[in-house]
Amino acid sequence: MTTSQSTYPIGTPGRPWGEAEVAAWQSRQRVQRSYRADVLDAVDALRSRFDVIPYGQLDYPPDSYPLLAIRSRDWREALPCVLVTGGVHGYETSGVHGALQFADRHAADYAGKANLMVVPCVSPWGYERIHRWNMRALDPNRSFRDNSPAQESAALMRLVAPFRDRVLVHVDLHETTDTDESEFRPALAARDGVAYVPGEIPDGFYLVDDSEHPQPAFQQAIIDAVAKVTHIAPADARGEIIGSPVVGPGVIAYALKALGLCAGITDAPYKTTTEVYPDSPRATPEQCNAAQVAAVCAAIDYALQHAR
Question: Which of 128, 152, 275, 286 is catalytic?
């Protein structure tokens, strides 16, 4: 289903939202699941094996959300650092649960080889409401820059700042869903007062490389690993995925830092954004989580093997 900007229920076509429109949008959002039950309780269950780092708190009255990261207990300055982030877009479920599953089942495999920092849910307000934006109708994944207007993005950048120059690999876990076209892109067009141009949702997993510092062999290693778990998105008739040219099987590229994307917050030589497609009839929720875990493991394994 597609929704044109002229029929989006909030705003006036051609006019960007103001405070009244944002307030009207906020009034439509409803809590649909629990950050505490799904994320905080899962993190608490890992405290016996990892350091749990509070790195901030989101205050969106009347709600408040503690922000937690999972860190290797044997963190050593001499080791390379690995950053895994999930839930930058709160509605992208397998990013959150894939990060937690990786920490639970595979993080121990890298003890003594790398320092791990896993941030499973960057945007808890969006997680609870199954939404892409934060409470201010801002996209955290376009807000990773100095003086960020998004609390979620600013908090993560503060967490990473002390070791950002030592990050070897950063994997940012995302999903592309049917609601990108039925809700989120039409809402974005309405918010910004521009025309909505329908797009095409790819059926399958894909990656986003850094166009400024591409690592095609690294991306291919991840694709090869994930292909054992779920199917890889093909290019469309134009040779594109979500409007970007395919640069390798299941891989497109963005200017990560210039766009304010989470995967661009460090100068890690190896970085990628995963995109799982949970609405495919060919993929189960378990496969989606497993695909995220496979991507993280393959990324770390490649980076450790090829690090200079």
Answer: 275
